[in-house]
Amino acid sequence: MPGGKRTRSEGWRKVRALRLEDIRHWWMRRLPVLEWVPAYDWKENLVPDAVSGMMLAVQQVTQGLAFAVLSSVHPVFGLYGSFFPVIIYAIFGMGRHVATGTFALTSLISANAVERLVPSAGTNFTANNNSGVLGLSEFEMQRIGVAAAVSFLGGIIQVAMFMLQLGSATFLLTEPVISAMTTGAATHVVTSQVKYLLGMKMPYISGPLGFFHIYAYIFENIRSVQLEALLLSLLSIVVLVLVKELNEKFQRNIKIVLPIDLVLIIATSAACYYADMEYAYGLEVVGHIPEGLPPPKVPPMNVLSEVVTEAFGVALVGYVASLALAQGSAKKFKYTVDDNQEFLAHGLSNVIPSFFFCIPSAAAMGRTSLLYSTDARTQVACLISSALILVVIYTIGPMLYWLPMCVLASIIIVGLKGMLMQFRDLKKYWNVDKIDWSIWVSTYVFTICFAANVGLLYGVVSTIVTVIFRFSRARTLNLKNMKEVEYKYKTEDNCKSLKQVKIVSVNNPLVFLNARKFQADLTKIIQKDSTSSQTCEDVNKCEQNTLLCSFSNGSCHGESLQPSQSERRVLILDCSGLSLFDYTGASTLLQIYMDCKNRHIDVLLARCKGKYKLTAKFLT
Hints:
Layout (H helix, E strand, L loop, with lengths): L1 H29 L2 H4 L5 H29 L5 H6 L2 H9 L7 E3 L1 H14 L20 H26 L11 H24 L11 H11 L6 H23 L10 H15 L2 H4 L27 H26 L5 H13 L9 E3 L1 H9 L6 H17 L8 H11 L1 H4 L4 H8 L1 H16 L2 H22 L8 E9 L7 E9 L8 H13 L8 H9 L4 E2 L17 E7 L8 H16 L2 E6 L5 H8 L1
Helix pairs in contact: 3-16, 3-17, 5-14, 5-16, 6-7, 6-13, 7-13, 7-14, 8-9, 8-17, 8-20, 8-21, 10-17, 13-14, 13-21, 19-20, 20-21, 22-24
Pfam family, one: Sulfate_transp
Main location: membrane
Keywords: Membrane, Transmembrane, Transmembrane helix
């Protein structure tokens, strides 16, 4: 009896220990900050993170002001949107080099709801009306209320997608679709800023084919262009492009790049103040910037039903653009990102800040590229930028009164350079897969003619339909989809060295549907050599895998080949059965090649058929 009680008590201890371990593991997964903060190397990482944080703060301030205007709200709310979401993502996000904050595409989408529900009445940001919160007018508070409601509902949708585990469905978002959608949306953003570049007064135009109606209005009213605003815009764009190109060219030789955005803001604000350009030339300026942070307030729930369309657009477009940057940084710096956790991180980064009058947020390509170029290590760089933005909100903000709007528009357009340069991707899509090229072009056209969320939906649907059609016509072998042979031989030139060769035969189409699985299974083959032993059970598990059948010299002895320092390893991919692949499949092969290169493994593509020979050259 005592023995039975002892057994039960030990069992309960194991159950409790297991549950505690599961709970701890769950919290570590949901709060990545608990994992990277204790392991943070203060001596090694603090200095580069501090430098990156200071540079990022400059860009966050300028983009915050600009994207708030793009969202049709007062510029000060862009500063709040550059502060709160950064802190939330640093706690819940997994991208170490992802700079969350205000984002051009989500701002453009939320502007549709703002202009529809609180239409403009010819007001501008120079009016200093103390009838509302923060010294702002009731009209401006109504507008930010709508934008905050879009952010709140968009974040709720992202959190719901996290709870439904929809992060695993992101394989449907292929690179051509994301590239075309973001490029088209960037084109929309540039179009929305033309009125500021030209100094024109024009009504807000949106809806289907609104892109073309804007330019039609501009050409009809071309005589109303303000020459002073046009010249200042052209000068600002030339200076921004020239200095940023020089920064990129000499970034290896200089540790700190010139913050040209900040310099331009200070110079043009001072010139506008001393020359009294607002009244002498009628130049539109930012106007009154309130000091301090606002008290929290619940977004207006009565408008949620009217902003559902924009909220879905913010949730999907913001997540897709942010996830692409997170995955890119994870590949570049060799760590992993949980697609589903990113739903939670960006969802909370929209929900919580919406209580502090923030516009919708997401990660931006320009800010993430800045973290790359300044050698940022962790999210500490983003937290440092948030601390500096807080200083701006409480002290420097009111000094931005005289900043010309045309300069802000120039900063927006130059900041979208990375997205607009994605037009160059058309050449590689054409070389790899002309169907992916056609999907890119048609997705871009749909985005231009309608909206970013419509273009994204069209791209996903067209990709699925295309793959179904191509799979039905693809010739596949009635064998295992992947088989592996490995052997050793002594090279003729050096009989003392052994050359270990793996031949992997692929007999299935390699497209976005199975590209991740293909890479995971091939990685298992590569990593098998680094293990000390391999049992027949493991081989049997591989045989049950839909993509992998493993055997060594036709037998299974539970032995693994340990490559010695004198051995050279070669991986040969037999592509004779690879009947088709798209750009995602080609990118996967390229990623496998880079991973093998880091492991000192030579990769060769063999028996490529027809047009895929060109792709093999592209990959190598």
